[in-house]
């Protein structure tokens, strides 16, 4: 893992001038970035798990995947084939024509009475005219179902990948336990900071903030897995029911209307979510914990993500006081000023600091500072001890910063998206590191270096040095 970090370093850029571009070499293939390698490795693990694990749901997942790949819901918009199908049955076999109409009664109007809806067409002896009338009545339904079906089945392919990822987590439950242990270390440190925070003490809100901070917990995916397993079985039952319908257009229509399992979050990507009171790490993030990591890398790569997500529970803008009905205006101003200043020093394109970005900006600074202090507290005796056997002169302290930057490493221009509450990755990394006092010491940065010049003022979000009042 250290060699992977070394591979991305740009020696021509001084870490004190632009740490992000020093640690994340520009204009190289994204395939060599840490995140891409981790995600690819995780997908390979999924493939191996599918081959070796005898879980009874795996064949069903494969069955659904194969079905989805063969099905194109847009085919039901092929009105010519539906028209010819009815004409042929109308001319050659009235009973089959009647059954086709009954199928559509059931599918579209949810009942199969013989005297309803489409079945009156069976009495039209002009089969061509009857077929034209049928298609006119079905056309909008066909179009709506085709759109919905395509979206639904494409979503299932993402769901199936997620489901396999959940099963991987179940087989690696020790990683969930380790992530919880690391998270509890952060919580322990945060509780101490909250109790010392002047703006909380002076507003008599220490207890309330402590309660909110104590609510958050790392979620176990086993319950989600069981629920999703039921959804898979329900979808297969629906396919089986459709299969027994008359062949042809009605069957295709039926397939396209099946409510397949869907998901909003891609658990196969390096990501994390705070759905307070639940914090979730995606499976590739958990898989990082299975690697042979030094404590510095464990904290930089994984605990920093936990810290950022923890920040989302506590760092709230004025417009979003659902969890925290009070917050320090001085803290908000300090955070935003830092990102504005980092933009002026390091932008590679569009870079503006808006109030809607505060939750992310605040979580970045909060998580980075809390994580580094937690690492330092537990490994202070080895912070500056040399790690031998590599191209670069490593210490655990240096490795922490490189590891944390690796999670946000992208090759292209680091530019803000006006619709995204996150700042550009380059700004996020450099702003956070400028705010960690030990950074300058670890890399021996001169006060006139860009990384040091870019710091607006030291932001103390929580703890004894935080602002006195809201």
Structure overview:
With about 475 residues, the chain is mainly alpha-helical. Among the domains are: about 1-30 and about 290-455, Collagenase (Catalytic Domain), CATH 3.40.390.10; about 70-165 and about 220-255, no CATH class. Helices cover about 60% and strands about 0% of the residues. The protein has 20 helices and 3 strands. The protein has a 3-stranded mixed beta sheet. The two termini are about 45 Å apart. InterPro entries: MetalloPept_cat_dom_sf, Peptidase_M13, Peptidase_M13_C.
Defining traits:
single chain; 470 residues; mainly alpha; Collagenase (Catalytic Domain); three-stranded mixed β-sheet; 2% strand; elongated; Peptidase M13 C-terminal domain-containing protein; Peptidase_M13_C; Peptidase_M13; metalloendopeptidase activity
Oligomer: single chain
Question: What coarse outline follows from CA principal-axis ratios?
Answer: elongated
How many angstroms does the end-to-end distance come to? Answer: 43 Å
As a whole number of angstroms, the C-alpha radius of gyration is 29 Å
Q: Taking strands numbered 1, 2, ... along the chain, how are they ordered across the largest sheet? A: 1-3-2
Low-confidence stretches: none
Enumerate how many helices there are, as a single number.
20
- Number of strand segments: 3
- Could you name the CATH topology of one domain? Collagenase (Catalytic Domain)
* Topology order in helix (H) and strand (E) letters: HHHHHHHHHHEHHEEHHHHHHHH
What structural category do the secondary elements indicate? mainly alpha
Organism: Caenorhabditis angaria
GO molecular function: metalloendopeptidase activity
InterPro entries: MetalloPept_cat_dom_sf (IPR024079), Peptidase_M13 (IPR000718), Peptidase_M13_C (IPR018497)
Protein name: Peptidase M13 C-terminal domain-containing protein
